[in-house]
Design a protein that fits this description.
Strand order of the largest sheet: 21-22-1-23
Radius of gyration: 22 Å
Pfam family, one: EPSP_synthase
Domain Enolpyruvate transferase: 7-423
Subcellular location: Cytoplasm
Largest sheet: 4 strands, mixed
Strand content: 15-25%
Keywords: Cell cycle, Cell division, Cell shape, Cell wall biogenesis/degradation, Cytoplasm, Peptidoglycan synthesis, Transferase
GO molecular function: UDP-N-acetylglucosamine 1-carboxyvinyltransferase activity
Shape: globular
Amino acid sequence: MSIFKIKGGKKLKGEIIPQGAKNEALQILSATLLSAEPITIHNVPNIVDVNKLIELIGDLGSKVEKLGPESYRFTASNVNINFLETDTYRKKAAALRGSVMLLGPILARFGKATMPKPGGDKIGRRRLDTHFLGFQKLGAKFNFDSEEHLFHIDASELKGCYMLLDEASVTGTANIVMAAVLAKGTTTIYYAACEPYLQQLCLMLNRMGAKISGIGSNLLTIEGVAKLGGTEHTLLPDMIEIGSFIGLAAMTQSEITIKNCRIDMLGIIPEIFKRLGIKMEFRGDDIYIPSQERYELETFIDGSILTVSDAPWPGFTPDLISIVLVVATQAKGSVLIHQKMFESRLFFVDKLIDMGAQIILCDPHRANVIGLDRKQQLKGIKMSSPDIRAGVALLIAALSASGTSEISNIDQIDRGYQNIDQRLKALGADIERIA
């Protein structure tokens, strides 16, 4: 198992380009199975989870052509859904949580599917009820084989309907939308997720011939069509990487320019980092972060301690809560971090405490961070990455710390961040990957 060895305390400088959005990629790539015609996707990130999904799509019989470093053409004219019954599929799908996104397109186009329980990060319960309840309302019938741990689904007669989702699940909404575009009649989805990734999916489907209205709102209306055609699509830059790089610049007192950010699609993310005292300039579509010796947390208008919490879009994304928490450790002031959506994502703060951070973990969802105001530098330690986002937060902490840190289990980080060590080296980081 590989390890990152980091000598911290160095100021970084330069430009960095965010990869294509991982969470969008998992939806968009799955949607290529909805049509027999060629679909070209650009800005595809070269990361483990995305590559595994591309491999699965190819195994299903879709013709996968790599047109360039970040561009692929998919032609799903000869899909073999019998592959879903094989042990190979079960093993690969069970190891990749994103494999659940294949379900909607396969059910819509072929009327049946088999799916093992998917894998993914150990960040608490991530239920699939929204996906399955949505499919059932469209007319799908589920049968769970407890011995084989497989879901067998019959969706031979999908019909449009009205549904009120039990939660604004991004992947759940995307999966239901992909199933509904080929269903008979009209589907109305209320309390739909409206993240930029989902907006991108809906816009792509419309270019393929779908009829989706209400894009960008929590009320989607989908008129089913008989078939979809081909198209070309470019993924957004990854907003989680952009937020991570903003936090990296602040923690390491670095001067960094983040290129091609699609600032118009970042929502409240820049504003949250500004509340942490981080200065930034928008230069066209780039974000320039100047070197800052100190940064001070805002308080609320009445003087009470700032609270940063996650929420469904257009609220603050849960994937950046760990970054905000780490950045706050060196700020002037205090902040309450409230991670509402996953109960285990704060279970990395013990490593930060070992590094010298002042954090009180109130419960699985809340942590009170008392900023050190740079009066005491974090110190390097040996630690393990528990999941993708916490792993990068720990990496940022290590880059700002005095001495040497080692982070094991970096396969988790590789699942979400493309060649992160090489890209950080280009900024001047002292980071080494040890096999």
